[in-house]
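Protein modeling request. Please complete all fields; requests missing the sequence field cannot be processed.
Requester role: graduate student
Desired output: 3D structure, C-alpha cell encoding
Chains: 1
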Amino acid sequence: MARIAGVNIPTQKRVEIGLRAIYGIGPTKAKEICKKLNIPHERRVHQLTDDEVLKIRETIDHEYKVEGDLRRDVSMNIKRLMDLGTYRGLRHRKGLPVRGQRTHTNARTRKGKAVPIAGKKM
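Delivered output (122 residues):
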C-alpha cells in the first residue's frame, strides 16, 4: 500500500489515476508527475518499487501544494473575502451560490432543504 501525502493510494489502479486520490492533484498534474519520473502510463500502483514511491513522494512534497496546506489556503482565502465584506464573501457567509448562478429556482445544494412559508400563495 503506497501512502503519499498522508493518503493511501488505491493499489489496483494505474499510477496516473491513483495519484488523483490526493487532494490538489488532478489529471494534468498526475500525468505531469508520471512523465517527469518516467513512470509508464500502464503501470499499476502495486507494481511500483519502493524507490519509485519515494521519488513520487519527494516530488509532490517539494513541487506541489496538496492536502492540508492547500485546504488551509483555500479556507483562508474564503475567510479573507468574508472579513473584507466583499460581495463574494457575503455570499459565502449566507450560504448562497457565489459564482452568479440563479437562486429563484434550483441552488438547493448550496441553500439546503426548502423551507415552506406559511400563508404564501403562488
